[in-house]
Design a protein that fits this description.
single chain; 393 residues; alpha+beta; two-stranded antiparallel ribbon; 16 helices; 12 strands; 9% strand; globular; binds zinc ion
């Protein structure tokens, strides 16, 4: 999204999202619409049979708390302004106030006159949420009845293409998207993948018959993208203002001459590819690369306040990046944006086995919901139909 489209701070939220009953005399139409469409409940003790009630509690956590201002809580979720204004509405004989308003947008509500819940979601995690719900389709299973052909030589025909078509679900929105031949995906701006490596450990590709002397004399061996970045830092003062990941925004890699040049056109962002914590030093080098500006050598990357540290990990500690286990919580969170729970669990197990965590229970408390995100789905799937008869889901 464009920066000015993101509603980056709480001040941007209030003009777009309201969670209060408007003053009836100021805007009677809006007051009517909010009362009719945007009031949750009554639930709780006043109405135990409300569909939102689970174990005698409102599953949507209404009524919310009063709040004089819109704020963002410690986990990054918005708490909308709900002033104790005294404005109330009657629903099924119960008086409800601002604590029971479902967040809405004034313009949308007036235009469409329907229940439209609008929420501020400005986290990378929201993307996973969106994709999960748009693409998963309803839960389903394919069951096949057939005569067991044991004892005959007939082999069961396994038509994978047919299976793929049978089990592919396209929702109405995806179907119309494809009928209108809209683009299914595109990427802007271009992303440059930035390789990095420990000293003397960059990848060298060569054929099995190549002469070792020739291989070592190849220009690519002496000048990796990563090494050339540090070399340019030696002579370009502007370059030294950037971290490695920021570098492609201002410089472009010239493949022919194997060097970085000042970027004149096109927009590109850089991404330093991720490495597992289990890999050790490369992982800590990557952390430093996201902080250090303009280093001219590996030593400079390991230098903090003028002191050269023996390892990248030590330098991370000296910079205060590993004082607690938050780094590992962040690593699991970051991985959760693109990885399945099974991977996250094995990452956590690796951390335990390598004795990396100083307080494993702290990391567990902060991440168990990510590690077990699929657990309910998995349990539902454990029915007594043989696995082979399941459709892909
Ligand atoms: Zn409720």
């Amino acid at each position: 999204m464009k920066v000015d489209h993101k509603l980056p701070t709480v001040d941007h939220i209030d003009p777009f999202i309201s969670a209060e009953i408007p003053d009836k005399s100021e805007d009677p139409q809006l007051h009517y619409l909010v009362s009719k469409y945007m009031i949750h409940g009554p639930c709780g003790a006043a109405n135990l049979s409300c569909p939102c009630m689970v174990d005698n509690k409102c599953s949507k956590r209404f009524p919310k708390k009063f709040s004089d201002h819109t704020i963002i809580d410690s986990s990054g979720f918005p708490v909308y302004r709900r002033q104790d204004s005294g404005h109330t509405v009657m629903k099924k004989g119960v008086q409800l106030d601002n604590r029971s308003v479902v967040p809405y947008n004034k313009g949308l509500l007036k235009r469409y006159q329907a229940h439209i819940n609008v929420e501020w979601c400005n986290q990378a995690g929201s993307i996973k949420y969106l994709f999960k719900y748009i693409n998963k389709g309803p839960d389903r299973a394919t069951a096949v009845l057939y005569t067991d052909s044991t004892g005959t030589s007939n082999q069961k025909i396994n038509d994978e293409i047919k299976q793929y078509y049978d089990c592919r679900y396209i929702s109405a929105c995806e179907a119309s998207w494809r009928i209108f031949a809209n683009e299914v995906h595109y990427r802007y701006p271009a992303v440059m993948r930035l390789p990095f490596h420990l000293p003397g450990q960059h990848n060298v590709v060569y054929g099995e018959d190549d002469d070792i002397e020739d291989v070592l004399n190849k220009p690519s061996v002496a000048s990796s993208i990563f090494l050339q970045w540090m070399r340019l830092n030696e002579r370009d003062e502007e370059a030294r203002k950037l971290t490695y990941v920021e570098f492609p925004t201002k410089y472009v890699w010239n493949l022919k001459d194997r060097c970085w040049q000042v970027r004149k056109r096109y927009k590109t962002v850089g991404r330093v590819h991720s490495v597992s914590i289990a890999s050790g030093e490369p992982y800590y080098l990557r952390i430093l690369l996201n902080k250090v500006r303009g280093p001219k050598s590996f030593e400079e990357i390991r230098t903090v306040n003028g002191q050269v540290f023996p390892t990248f990990k030590d330098a991370c500690y000296a910079m205060g990046l590993l004082d607690d286990d938050n780094e590992y919580v962040e690593a699991i969170k970051e991985a959760s944006f693109e990885a399945h729970c099974r991977y996250l669990r094995s990452l956590f197990a690796t951390l335990l086995l390598t004795n990396t965590l100083s307080r494993p229970e702290f990391v567990w408390e902060k991440t168990w919901h990510l590690l077990g995100d699929d657990i309910l789905f998995k349990r539902r799937k454990e029915t007594h139909i043989p696995e082979s008869n399941f459709g892909g889901n």
